[in-house]
Design brief:
It is an enzyme of class 2 (transferase). Pathway: Amino-sugar metabolism; 1,6-anhydro-N-acetylmuramate degradation; Cell wall biogenesis; peptidoglycan recycling. This is Anhydro-N-acetylmuramic acid kinase. GO terms for molecular function: ATP binding; kinase activity; phosphotransferase activity, alcohol group as acceptor. Its EC number is 2.7.1.170. Strand 10, helix 11 and strand 11 form a beta-alpha-beta unit. The protein has 13 helices and twelve strands. The protein folds into two domains: 131 residues, ATPase, nucleotide binding domain (Nucleotidyltransferase, domain 5); 178 residues, ATPase, nucleotide binding domain (Nucleotidyltransferase, domain 5). The two termini are 31 Å apart. The mean pLDDT is 97. Helices cover 34% and strands 22% of the residues. The chain is an alpha/beta fold. The longest helix is centred in the C-terminal third of the chain and has 20 residues. Helix 5 packs across helix 12 and helix 10 crosses helix 11. The protein binds adenosine-5'-triphosphate and the ligand CC(=O)N[C@H]1[C@@H]2OC[C@@H](O2)[C@@H](O)[C@@H]1O[C@H](C)C(=O)O. The site of adenosine-5'-triphosphate (ATP) has 22 residues, from helix 6.
């Protein structure tokens, strides 16, 4: 990247409330928007069961209720109050609906309100400009993944695999200095990851998720259903491509006749098979797959993914990064890029015609 437009690194607090609806992650990052200089404190503010139910009731809506928006803003300000020493905030908000080729993309929560509460500049609304310019608006973490690959001094292509509610994969060539340059990145959503498993656990057992994949480990995968799932048109699309949390919601109906363990095993196998299929798009084989997001703690899912991929699949902690906070850190990094007018997406990450930035800045 050009040396002529250098900036002084600052501490930025990135906030993410992801599609699994488990809570708000806040993480501090010391960055100039190009290089990661240091990682700082982080905090997780969980949503209570009733808060989760409120958020769940808003999925698919293009205008969330006042109560839901207030919950998102309050939860974020509570989370931010637990970390100190930041000069700016990157606020993703809560995605309730995502239809980039149709109605657009909707992240609830007003950055202006958070700016008032924190007294700091808040960068927010990261996705809508990309969608407006013809992109998918997601995934946006890939530019940060590129910075992470350089931070860990990777010398060979590497894949970052996020297993959140939805799965997303970024292939990075760390030897290309500028993430927006041709050949540096390829990124896309792989398919459903934890969302259907969580929904199954919630509706059948009143639990938030399948701890460690223990239930799935005791079940049998329904091979016919898995085969049917992999014939979904999403898997025929070439990347970049992105998903709404509930795009694959019908898989729950498909496993309705299976017992709990077989249903969990089959949904877990679907998540793993989507990753294996996604890996076929890698421009060159990566040296390894670094897994982040809560799904990295699901041993059954991790084993199924490893069985379907030709290179080592390891938790991102193996290289010293924090898989629980990577997305929050990503929005700290992207916030800094926004304030510097640097791009946050490019044709190979969101399908936008040319590398562009986005985001809005609200001042406290
Ligand atoms: N110990 C565990 N065992 C199994 N699964 C787990 C465990 N811990 C977390 N998870 C899963 O990971 C999910 C949280 O993942 P994460 O925080 O990465 O998602 P997110 O950021 O909300 O989603 P997205 O990346 O799609 O926005 C939980 O809802 C659960 O499904
Ligand atoms: C529209 C939206 O919020 N998408 C999320 C979701 O969660 C995972 C996957 O789907 C990814 O595309 C994205 O989040 C990450 C942080 C991203 O933009 O990189």
């Amino acid at each position: 990247m050009s040396a002529k437009n250098k900036a002084t690194p600052i501490w930025v607090a990135g906030c993410m409330s992801g599609t699994s609806l488990d809570g708000v992650d806040v993480a501090l990052l010391h960055t100039d928007g190009e290089t990661i200089f240091d990682f700082g404190d982080s905090y997780f503010r969980a949503y209570s069961k009733s808060e989760q139910a409120l958020l769940r009731s808003q999925l698919g809506l293009w205008a969330a209720s006042e109560a839901a928006v207030e919950l998102i803003e309050t939860a974020h300000s509570e989370a931010l109050s637990q970390v100190q020493g930041f000069e700016m905030v990157g606020f993703h908000g809560q995605t309730f609906a995502h239809d980039p080729q149709g109605l657009g993309t909707y992240q609830a929560g007003d950055g202006g309100v958070l700016a008032q509460i924190t007294g700091k500049p808040v960068v927010w609304d990261f996705r809508s400009n990309d969608v407006k310019m013809g992109g998918q608006g997601a995934p946006l973490a890939p530019f940060f993944h590129h910075a992470c690959a350089r931070y860990i001094k990777a010398t060979e292509p590497v894949v970052f695999l996020n297993l959140g509610g939805v799965g997303n994969l970024t292939w990075v060539d760390p030897l290309i200095e500028n993430p927006a340059d041709t050949g540096a990145l390829l990124a896309f959503d792989t398919g459903p990851a934890n969302a259907p498993i969580n929904d199954l656990m919630q509706t059948r057992l009143g639990k938030s998720y399948d701890e460690n994949g223990d239930l799935a480990a005791t079940g049998q995968v329904d091979a016919a259903l898995l085969g049917q799932f992999m014939r979904h048109s999403y898997f025929l699309k070439m990347p970049p491509k992105s998903l709404d949390r509930n795009d694959f919601h019908d898989v729950l109906a498909q496993v309705a006749h299976l017992n709990d363990a077989d249903a969990a095993a089959t949904l877990t196998a679907m998540a793993a098979a989507s990753v294996a299929q996604g890996m076929e798009h890698c421009p060159r084989p990566p040296a390894r797959v670094l897994v982040c997001g809560g799904g990295s703690k699901n041993a059954t899912l991790m084993a199924m993914i490893a069985a379907g991929v030709d290179c080592p699949v390891v938790p991102i902690e193996t290289v010293g990064l924090d898989g629980d906070m990577l997305e929050a850190q990503a929005f700290a990094y992207l916030a800094m890029r926004v304030t510097r007018g640097l791009p946050t997406s490019c044709p190979t990450t969101t399908g936008v015609a040319a590398a562009i930035g986005g985001g809005r800045v609200s001042r406290g």
